[in-house]
Write a structure and sequence with these properties.
alpha+beta, six-stranded mixed beta sheet, three-stranded antiparallel beta sheet
């Protein structure tokens, strides 16, 4: 599926006779959420939750293994419910069909792959990227209560984000230090288990950044 930015090749269903606030909502969903076609809309029924029944615009999808277009659509097994970005103070859920397909060339069966949500996930990638930003300066419990998301889900997403962010920041600091003239390094040992195990921190004193952790503190280990 070819997606650019957050243009999702899906159809959002909207009822024909609705008030002006639904017209504004449609403009929002078409622009912000990136739906390329709008057909019918599932009524909110005065609840703080919007549920949208979506369908891929294309009838078929290329094989995930051999990239062949010779695929056969076998029907829909069920509909996945995934949470998307909140809109107008309401939780937004997308009802995505789990479309079964088979490849003629590779003789393999697979399920329709959506670019904006990972397999077996209940949250879109756009929604998951907002959780770490809200967790900065707050606790996991507070973020879970504000976003109405399970605390275990928030903790898992934030933990994954911290690993990626720490690796990115460390690489940026090391790259900056390697291109710095008159580099000044600082060493600081600290105890993992006092009297037994120590590590050494390597610092870039000129730029004020932390570069790496070296196991041990002896000359041979350094």
């Amino acid at each position: 599926m070819n997606t650019k930015k957050h243009l999702y090749p899906l159809e959002l269903r909207v009822p024909p006779n609705k008030s002006a606030r639904y017209t504004d909502a449609l403009s929002f969903y078409q622009g912000f959420m990136g739906f390329t076609k709008i057909k019918n809309y599932c009524n909110r029924k005065n609840r703080p939750t919007d549920s949208h029944r979506c369908e891929p615009i294309e009838l078929k999808q290329s094989c995930l293994i051999c990239k062949s277009n010779q695929t056969i659509r076998r029907g829909i097994s069920y509909r996945r419910t995934v949470r998307h970005l909140d809109a107008f103070g309401c939780r937004v859920y997308l009802k995505l069909p789990a479309i079964r397909l088979s490849c003629k060339a590779y003789i393999a069966a697979f399920v329709w792959h959506y670019e904006f949500v990972a397999p077996n996930k209940r949250y879109t990638k756009a929604f998951e990227t907002t959780l770490p930003k809200q967790a900065i300066g707050a606790t996991i419990t507070h973020t879970a209560r504000v976003t109405e998301t399970p605390a275990t889900t928030v903790a898992r997403i934030v933990k994954t984000w911290k690993k990626k962010e720490a690796s990115r920041v460390q690489q940026a600091c090391q790259h900056k230090a390697s291109h710095c003239q008159n580099l000044v390094l600082g060493l600081d040992d600290f105890a993992i288990r006092k009297g037994h195990t120590y590590n050494t921190g390597l610092h870039d004193l000129r730029n004020g950044t932390f570069l790496d952790i070296i196991p041990g503190r002896t000359i041979l280990e350094l």
